[in-house]
Amino acid sequence: MNNKLIKFLIILNGLMLPLLLGFGIFMIVKEFLPRRQVQYQQSGLIVGEDLEEAKKDSIVWQGLDYDMPEEIYNSPNFLLKVGVRDYKKGEDISKLLYSKPSKGYYNSNTDLVNVVFLDKNYNVIRSLLDKKASISTIGTRDVAHEILGERIKSYSTITYLIAFEDNNGDGKLNSEDYEDLYISNLSGGNFTQVTKGVDVQNWVVDHDKGKVLVKYKERTNQEEEHRDEKYAIYSINDKKLTLMSGVNEELKKLESIIRE
């Protein structure tokens, strides 16, 4: 009996040892094999080579995503924010045109691609943009208005942070690319660029005076912490951005004091 058990264990060991050894080798080799990259993980509007390849293959990777119209402060108008949604898998163009679009898609991207302005009867006034873009921020009111509990009659400007080019070359147009500050009136008209070639840190609109105070950093190759924050002021009526040299120089002087 004991001899049979010993023989059985020897045979079992002979079978298991190669299997365990093979599994161990597989796990080691697996770590060195190239891993398949999941397409379009980063949010944003697909542009560049990725888009061109998709078009060649008649594949649609994205569609529009939008919510309910929102009231515009101090205006009878409404705005409809338009974003993009990523399909879990590419859909053939013909299927999207002649049948219901796929209901399977990832969560809506944070960045918007356009804004549609509607009048009080929900008729279209205009779309803000006529080309591809990423809108990461829309400023439609100031916190101070809510605190005061009063409707500011001079409120007439909407602000936007927008990127129009895929500067980092990742195939997506989003807030990771260079953004500039833009403004429009409450119906999307008089769309105007405020800043160019700087990284906007913050801004506030002085509606009574028709000015926009902008805090920014120079757009250079320096590390973030080595770039000084500066101020400029934009005149909405004159469409002119002026550096606040006095304030910037005073802050530079104060910084030199703490370094001494």
Q: What is the global morphology?
A: flat
* Count of helical stretches: 5
Q: Which class do the helix and strand fractions yield? A: alpha+beta
Q: What does the largest sheet look like?
A: 5 strands, antiparallel
Q: How many strand elements? A: 15
Radius of gyration: 28 Å
Helical content class: 25-40%
Q: How far do the termini sit from each other?
A: 90 Å
- Percent strand equals 25-35%
Give the low-pLDDT segments. Answer: 32-41, 89-109, 143-147
Overall pLDDT, averaged? 75
Order of helices and strands: HEHEEEHEEEHEEEEEEEEH
Number of domains: 2
Notes on the structure:
It is a single chain. The chain folds into two domains: 39-193, no CATH class; 197-260, no CATH class. It has five helices and 15 strands. The protein has helices at residues 2-32, 48-56, 93-98, 143-148, 245-259, and strands spanning 45-46, 59-66, 70-71, 78-92, 112-118, 124-127, 134-139, 158-163, 172-173, 180-184, 192-193, 198-206, 211-218, 229-235, 240-243. A hairpin with a 4-residue loop joins strand 14 and strand 15 (240-243). It is flat, with a radius of gyration of 28 Å.
